[in-house]
Specification:
Blueprint (H helix, E strand, L loop, with lengths): L1 E6 L5 E4 L6 E3 L26 H10 L3 E4 L23 E3 L4 E3 L5 H11 L2 E6 L6 H12 L5 H8 L10 E4 L14 H18 L4 E4 L12 H10 L5 E8 L6 H4 L2 H22 L7 E9 L26 H16 L4 E7 L8 E3 L5 E3 L3 H10 L3 E3 L7 E4 L2 E4 L1 E8 L4 E8 L6 E6 L7 E8 L19 E2 L3 E4 L2 E6 L3 E8 L7
Parallel strand pairs: 1-20, 3-4, 3-12, 4-7, 7-8, 8-9, 9-10, 10-11, 11-12
Antiparallel strand pairs: 2-15, 5-6, 13-14, 15-18, 16-17, 18-19, 19-25, 20-24, 21-22, 21-25, 23-24
Helix pairs in contact: 3-4, 3-5, 5-6, 6-8, 8-9, 9-10
Bound molecules: alpha-L-arabinofuranose.
Length: 505
Amino acid sequence: MNTATLVLDPAFRVAPVDPRVFGSFVEHMGRCVYTGLHEHDHPSADERGFRGDVLELVRELGATMVRYPGGNFVSGYRWEDGIGPVDQRPRRLDLAWRAIEPNTVGVDEFMAWCRSADVEPMMAVNLGTRGTKEAVELLEYCNHPGGTAWSDLRRANGSPDPHDVRVWCLGNEMDGPWQIGHKTAAEYGRLAAVTGHAMRRVDPRVELVACGSSGTSIPTFASWEATVLAECYDQVDHVALHHYADPAGLSLGEHLAAGVELDRAIGDIVATADHVGARLKSRRRLGVAVDEWNVWYYSKFAGEESLDWAETKSLSEDDYTAADAVVVGSLLITLLRHADRVRMACLAQLVNVIAPIRTEPGGRAWRQTTFHPFAQTAALARGEVLRVEPRSPHYDTRFGDTPLLDATATYDEESGALTLLAVNRSTDEPLELTAELRAFPGHRVATATTLASPDPGATNTADTEDRVVPRDNPQVTVADGRVTVVLPPVSWNVVRLVPASEQGG
Ligand code: AHR
């Protein structure tokens, strides 16, 4: 059996876990909003038409922040179309996904949904077909208390209190030639700077996210950030990074290595942003907002050009496998390992479109395999991320040297609880992991779970929702100041350790 070790010691800390790292993303795309989040005629719908069954699953998922309304969609969006009496809202062409947008759901409905779901909104403004003026007007509509045209309109539309949106994305993937209103880095950097400057005049408390690279394979990766941030460094707080792992054409072992690429991408973006900061002699350091990340079977998606002008159509409703859940777990581990710089992250998306939650129109809602690593981590990763210094056998992938073990841990000083998150990337062998507990004498195992399947390609459906779920792992022991746990091949594992004095699990 392969073996690996790591150390759990509160002296070695990365940074506190920012709850915003458990964000997600709702875009007007496919069935994410319509028949996903929102469906007036659904038996569980509330008075605004939001599905209660989906809302319950979102709460269980533990999402903390939700980005809206896109994505590529935002780059052609007129936010004013989505406010006021619903029956008077215009139907528009959505150029990003070649769909008809009915505007039944807009900013006020989304804010009401965020309150019900107890999540923080993260808004994106359109810097594709629109600019500074429309962005500051939207901010005034959302955050100004009243006594001006836009804020009074919000009040008249049924929201007397400001929506108080703190986090704003200055556009979406403006580096991508597919983006409506795509710009060069210099053009975008300037626009982000002037828009950020004006937005802070409306509300100085906003946190602004500049568009970074839409992926590592785009030719402008890192040079985009260097040029953009040279223009807008002082006006923004975070730089975005998007990361989708497409399993197409990869062996299972290669797919499981996706976290290695994200790890390197985060490091590269931090280095690039810090280089700009150093050149500007700035004492500020920017955060990284990984505000779209997931496994995405993108190569199955026929491309925007092939789409027709339908109102509600299924797009990228990927069926996630047990192996995909393990990759999602590994990407979560990577995000946490960079807790000192990754201040927010959004699993893209939330419902139906590349999502942990799926729905039938008029029918059931269910948890995909990828729901579970996210829900467990959001619930249990508390306190500070520890630097655990794993030692493990490696294997070669196109991303380079890849450790079989991917792991991190969090320590909650208040409760004394330790949460160990671990992935075994081996496709055929279990891995015996031994964690040094020397700084936590007397800690005992409260729970140990494993998500794995004899068939890594197994999926959950509405009829077989419990096929791939975390199950108790009996192969865990604590002795001589060490916890030892056997991780099955292709598995996601969570071990929770608590002080001996704590009762229950
Ligand atoms: O999440 C799906 C799409 O992926 C988003 O609209 C876009 O920003 C990214 O390319």
